[in-house]
Amino acid sequence: MTEFSFDSTTATFAHDVLERSNAVPVLVDFWAPWCAPCRALKPILEKLAVEYGGRFLLAKVNTDEHPEIAGRYGVRGIPNVKAFVGGRVASEFTGAQPEAAVRRFIEALLPSPGETLRRAAEEAAAQGDRARARALLREAVAQEPANDRARTDLAALAIADGEWDEAEQQLGAVPEERRDERARGLAARVALRRKSEQLADLATLKAAVDASPDALESRLAYAERLAVDDRLEAALEELIEIVRRARGAPRERARRTILDLFTLASDRPELVSAYRRKLAAALY
């Protein structure tokens, strides 16, 4: 055994494999002493574990001694190598393989240079060094323009620092169909920010609504201002009221704004669920 290659057991598998795979890929070699192909594959895996110097880890599970783990992960033939990333099986192969094939298998699991920079930025941000994190992320997207996660991370940090133009630029480089929930939420925040630049202050807009409750454009502007000021529930109430009262373009604008706010509030599922029901009732 080495620091990069070790035996794993039923008792230690959760730590050895599931937890540690959050940091680096962990290859699990399911083997048995009587298996000749296992004996051929094992030294190749151990050699590469040393060569790669910790960029992946090798956990060896004797299926005769720990059949429950093999059963849990559907091992039907050995040697069976399963690669765990983030606590889940990301890839696998069965049977003895030549070193070149095993090397290709490993290379496909390892993070790209841009992803390595993104992870370093993540650590820097966690330590409170946002300037370094943003510098690393800029380098990551310069190397890999299609690294959507790096662009999304950079947009999030830019928003935290009040750099809305950079946030908009980075999110704009992520095609709509490739945006995950987080990117969509950040894009919604940027869109609301842009709207706020054209809106009066909250007190002025509230006064306009109080003076003319049926003036739907005023009510819509007031709702958007509430959303910009992070008063999402109050904003949704106003928008639902517009959907109930309006027809045509104002109603559609209110409906679309509600959907944007659902994206923005994706971390508040109970709020979103409640207002989805209210929206459905107002529409139908």
Structural topology:
Blueprint: E1 5-7, H1 13-19, E2 26-31, H2 36-51, E3 57-62, H3 67-72, E4 80-85, E5 88-94, H4 99-109, H5 113-126, H6 130-143, H7 148-160, H8 164-172, H9 181-196, H10 202-211, H11 216-228, H12 232-245, H13 248-264, H14 269-283
Parallel strand pairs: 1-3, 2-3
Antiparallel strand pairs: 2-4, 4-5
Q: Beta-sheet strand percentage? A: 5-15%
Helix-strand pattern? EHEHEHEEHHHHHHHHHHH
What would you report as the Rg, rounded to the nearest angstrom? Answer: 26 Å
User: Averaging pLDDT over every residue, what do you get?
Assistant: 90
Task: Write up this protein.
Helix 6 (130-143) runs antiparallel to helix 7, helix 9 crosses helix 11 (216-228) and helix 10 runs antiparallel to helix 11 (216-228). It is built from 14 helices and 5 strands. It has helices at residues 13-19, 36-51, 67-72, 99-109, 113-126, 130-143, 148-160, 164-172, 181-196, 202-211, 216-228, 232-245, 248-264, 269-283, and strands at 5-7, 26-31, 57-62, 80-85, 88-94. The chain is α/β, with parallel strands linked by helices and 284 residues long. The longest helix is centred in the last third of the chain and has 17 residues, at 248-264. The radius of gyration is 26 Å and the shape is elongated. The chain folds into 3 domains: 5-109, Glutaredoxin (3-Layer(aba) Sandwich); 113-178, Serine Threonine Protein Phosphatase 5, Tetratricopeptide repeat; 202-283, Serine Threonine Protein Phosphatase 5, Tetratricopeptide repeat, CATH 1.25.40. A 5-stranded mixed β-sheet has the order 1-3-2-4-5, sandwiched between helices. Helices cover 62% and strands 10% of the residues.
